[in-house]
């Protein structure tokens, strides 16, 4: 075997995969006919300049695929039957699946998803969304019956359905004090797609960005998939500290700030008004864009959410992201971004390559719902119910675990963030709770240390909350034993 | 100025942008206070080892931003007012917009989109979709009225709405002779998102893939945005030649084959049955996956489309992609992929990071429509109308331009592919036609030489086709003068 080929050490593919690939290719090209002897592991390792263990893994992989076989004493040979006459084989899907640049989702999140799919009777403190009781399902259903879809169902404007963008202009002005025009709005598949488009299209691999700690962003391998370097902005009771930005900029030359300033996920904290102004000042001094992810503000239990950064942003430093998910229905998949027109155009154009835009149908439903007389009463009902659920959760936690947990009581949002005051193994607690029929999200998913828990009180049935906490308390006591 | 910094020549950012960035950062850090003198262009060019013209551009950019100013005789200085007291500025959005890894869409496609947005009276031979006359708008509207949405609108199964996947299992078996299960199906935002997920998640930058020439794929900067190297499979009257695969594999080690074998976009050609078998053989010999993009087959005018590769694929080499766009409505944004379960899982997981999945609403509409008694009559009506439109187009072309054009008459699909037998400037023809109120897609968009045109006969109003061709003929004659 004349080896002019060498594995590429800078590739993201492991060395042994590369070697297995190369050998397979040579075999399929007849360079090694069926039955022929392959070089010994030692020899091949020498020729390729790799460890013998690397070659062992490469051969092992080819053996598993039935391409080669080894017999003690007679070395490693190309399989006969596999390659006889017309050798045919299935693509090595395993290798394709491992090969791309997208990191898999966090294992806790997969584990939660699988558990919920398997057992619908679990008490769900994990899914960060509204239950069907809280969603305006009836309103939407009636609205669809009364206004069936008659628009042309063709490829639509890449920025999104125009009537929805127009509704959002008045929604943003009325509810968020944000003045904008429909040409500065991009409709996306929830806030999620806004974040995805920003990380993919406005940043390049290797760029540094600042995100809150803890934060929803840590639950998203998306940032790492885009090759970004993440730097932390610790969140305290009044939010992140704007002065931290300066140091990060100086040291790491961060290019963007991602922040969820109002009823933050997972902590429930609001960035206080002074800090909002300071953050805008620092960002504009450094010419840094701020991504303001603001899905929760309209859930404010007293109906008076803090003003978004965007409403104070005179220089145009803020990309403002909103969504229907947390105030109406996550399954509609309707979100939006307010941004300078050049940014909106760029992202809309890139999005054409990804999915050709959102379906018009849910966009029309969203536009109608915003426009309808049902929207404001729905919001008011939602706030009341969320507050009631929060109270149920807080009472149950205080009763069942008065000393074991610490938390602040959130004034809006869907989540309660708890610190466990005792030493506990996250994983054991998670599994024990699951066994007892309760699922929650361990805080480490959001980048925090171990010993934190996020409870979503919007998702379980109202009547399950107290029972769920009792089960959680049992689980905690069991793993402390 | 002590320059320890050097621009990175391997970066995708231009040198002058990098230099402007760096200077701006130093200014904002006070390294150059307001009013201070910057190095001369010549000197800075020397220190950085770049051309003087590069520094000129960098300074020009900073001047445009109002960060520095130059006066003849007194050199280049940091602006005073901009940086006094609390210096504040807007992020340089221009640079963010240029910075990402997504290539902009082709300029012809943007030009077409803009023209159509501006002037809705244009005769549209360009948009590759069904007109409202051909879409089942009425059926869908009635169906929505009779079955309003009552399902819970939460985050759904990442593989897609289960009832739709179940309907697709029987649809695929009945209409495409593809036997599968709902766990092997992924619902996507049209075929577009299936292609996107495959290029992003199963391939890595630098990988080589084979695509047909001409092909829809060339209209997608998506492939280049994913960093893939494209190699061509020329398409003749009976499709691409499977033997070409071997050479590409040997030379470039292609990793995947993308093919649209039935009523190919843009040529309308079908890969003949013998070649289908050969292609499967070659692919399985080399262990190469085939992506079969099959949006058009059910438009077959005689109702007997060729069997897809997937129905002949015994080894599981084929990823099969379908869509509602070309047989019902592109604005629904419902497509699907049939793939090994491990692949479906991987792509579904990655997709969670991008958009959290499709809205349930259009998926339910699609499921109901497939299930309904309206589906088959709709298909039959669609085929009749498409054939009628094709005939209108062919007659008009033969009458107006009997010698100037050559084309084969397609037996299915939405498009007719023409060669212009005379020397003509693509761009002049395009602009002249636009001036006369007709828009089409120049063949170069699909990777062909100049002198080709794609006419979509599904999109304009039936009664506009003949007039549109007359206008096109006038435009062609005008640019030949
Ligand atoms: C802070 C934050 N941003 C964005 C999202 C994404 O939500 P969606 O895409 O449904 O709008 C979530 C969902 O949990 C969230 O908590
Ligand atoms: C061959 C081919 N594949 C895929 C697509 C994407 O269509 P959609 O995403 O609407 O299914 C098109 C659209 O023109 C096409 O022609």
Which strand order do you get reading across the main beta sheet of chain A?
4-11-10-9-8-5-6-7
Q: Can you tell me the residue ranges of chain A where pLDDT is under 50 for at least 5 consecutive residues? A: none
Query: In percent, how much strand structure appears in the residues of chain A?
Result: 5-15%
Number of beta strands of chain A = 16
Number of domains in the coordinates of chain A?
3
How large is the radius of gyration of chain A? 27 Å
Q: What is the oligomer described by this structure?
A: homodimer
C-alpha termini separation of chain A? 62 Å
Q: So how many helices of chain A?
A: 17
What is the CATH topology descriptor of the largest domain in chain A? Aspartate Aminotransferase, domain 2
CATH architecture of the largest domain in chain A: 3-Layer(aba) Sandwich
The backbone outline of chain A, from C-alpha atoms, is globular
- CATH C-level of the largest domain in chain A: Alpha Beta
Classification by helices and strands of chain A: alpha/beta
Protein name (chains A, B): Probable transcriptional regulator
InterPro entries (chains A, B): Aminotransferase_I/II_large, HTH_trans_reg/aminotransferase, PyrdxlP-dep_Trfase, PyrdxlP-dep_Trfase_major, Tscrpt_reg_HTH_GntR, WH-like_DNA-bd_sf, WH_DNA-bd_sf
Organism (chains A, B): Brevibacillus brevis (strain 47 / JCM 6285 / NBRC 100599)
GO molecular function (chains A, B): DNA binding; DNA-binding transcription factor activity; pyridoxal phosphate binding; transaminase activity
């Amino acid at each position: 075997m004349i080896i002019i080929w060498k594995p590429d050490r800078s590739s993201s593919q492991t060395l042994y995969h590369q070697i297995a690939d190369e050998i397979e290719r040579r075999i399929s090209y007849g360079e090694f006919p069926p039955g022929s002897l392959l070089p010994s592991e030692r020899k091949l390792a020498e020729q390729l300049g790799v460890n013998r263990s690397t070659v062992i893994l490469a051969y092992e992989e080819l053996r598993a695929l039935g391409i080669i076989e080894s017999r003690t004493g007679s070395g490693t040979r190309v399989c006969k039957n596999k390659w006889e006459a017309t050798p045919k084989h299935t693509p090595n899907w395993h290798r394709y699946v491992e090969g791309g640049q997208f990191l898999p989702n966090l294992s806790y999140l997969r584990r939660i998803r699988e558990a919920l799919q398997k057992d619908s009777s679990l008490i769900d403190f994990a899914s960060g969304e509204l239950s069907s009781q809280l969603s305006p399902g009836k309103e939407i259903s009636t609205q669809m019956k009364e206004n069936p879809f008659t628009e042309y169902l063709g490829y639509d404007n890449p920025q999104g359905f125009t009537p929805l963008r127009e509704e959002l202009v008045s929604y943003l002005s009325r509810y968020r004090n944000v003045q904008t025009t429909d040409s500065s709005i991009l409709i996306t598949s929830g806030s999620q797609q806004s974040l995805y488009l920003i990380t993919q299209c406005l940043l390049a691999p290797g760029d540094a960005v600042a995100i809150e700690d803890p934060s929803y962003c840590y639950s998203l391998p998306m940032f790492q998939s885009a090759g970004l370097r993440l730097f932390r902005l610790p969140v305290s009771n009044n939010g992140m500290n704007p002065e931290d930005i300066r140091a990060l900029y100086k040291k790491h030359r961060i290019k963007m700030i991602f922040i969820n300033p109002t009823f933050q996920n997972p902590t429930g904290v609001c960035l206080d008004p002074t800090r909002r102004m300071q953050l805008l000042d620092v960002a504009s001094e450094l010419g840094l864009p701020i991504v303001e992810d603001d899905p929760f503000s309209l859930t404010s239990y007293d109906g008076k959410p803090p003003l978004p950064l965007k409403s104070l942003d005179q220089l145009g430093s803020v990309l403002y992201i909103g969504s229907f998910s947390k105030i109406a229905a996550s399954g509609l998949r309707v979100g939006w971004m307010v941004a300078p027109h050049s940014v909106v155009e760029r992202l809309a154009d890139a999005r054409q390559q990804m999915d050709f835009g959102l379906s018009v149908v849910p966009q029309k439903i969203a536009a109608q719902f915003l426009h309808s007389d049902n929207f404001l009463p729905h919001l008011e009902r939602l706030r009341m119910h969320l507050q009631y659920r929060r109270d149920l959760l807080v009472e149950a936690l205080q009763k069942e675990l008065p000393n074991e947990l610490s938390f602040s009581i959130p004034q809006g949002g869907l989540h309660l963030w708890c610190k466990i005051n005792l030493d506990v193994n996250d994983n054991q607690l998670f599994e024990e709770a699951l066994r007892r029929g309760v699922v929650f999200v361990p805080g480490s998913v959001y980048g925090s240390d171990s010993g934190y828990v996020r409870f979503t009180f919007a998702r379980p049935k109202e009547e399950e909350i107290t029972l769920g906490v009792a089960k959680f308390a049992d689980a905690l006591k069991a793993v402390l034993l």
